[in-house]
Write a structure and sequence with these properties.
The protein is mainly alpha-helical. It has a domain at 6-31 and 42-92. The chain has 5 helices and 2 strands. A hairpin with a 5-residue loop joins strand 1 (94-95) and strand 2 (101-102). Helix 2 (47-60) packs across helix 4 (75-92) and helix 3 packs across helix 4. The mean pLDDT is 79.
Length: 145
């Protein structure tokens, strides 16, 4: 479903799991407690299940609704998981030949230019809310650029 081997997936869990947990704890600590310790909704997805949707989106181009069916959760849970994990993956970057790690778009462009390779950009559609019909701010067509 993701195109990743079990070994690579295990490495990502070991590397990114503690960073995700630290971010979650910092997020909770930054706001005043409104419920008793241990109260509230439980995570419907464990960390490894939160790590899979961003990779699945890249590998299969599946929309969040389809992934929600696969994982047995709501679309908003998948969207939240992707939003939590994607920044961790972006900070990590990717490793190409000779151990070169690319973390930013500028790094990727510079590497492609230096190596003479061609790169493809992902232009996955993102769902956005539009103003209700008849309200100001809603136009019949979407303008790009």
């Amino acid at each position: 479903m993701t195109g990743l081997s079990r070994e690579v997936l295990a490495e990502l869990v070991v590397e990114l799991g503690p960073r995700w947990q630290a971010r979650q704890e910092a997020r909770v600590a930054d706001r005043p407690r409104q419920r008793a310790v241990g109260a509230g909704a439980r995570h419907r997805l464990v960390f490894i299940d939160r790590l899979l949707p961003p990779w699945s989106i890249c590998a299969t181009r599946s929309p969040h609704d389809v992934l929600a069916c696969w994982f047995g959760v709501s679309r908003s849970t998948i969207t939240r998981a992707v939003g939590e994990v994607r920044p961790l993956l972006a900070e990590r970057g990717c490793t190409v030949e000779d151990g070169v790690r690319l973390r930013t778009l500028a790094d990727v462009v510079a590497h492609l230019g230096a190596s003479g390779q061609l790169g493809l950009l992902d232009a996955t559609e993102v769902r956005v809310r539009r103003p209700a019909a008849g309200r100001s701010g809603r136009s019949p067509a979407v303008r790009l650029g």
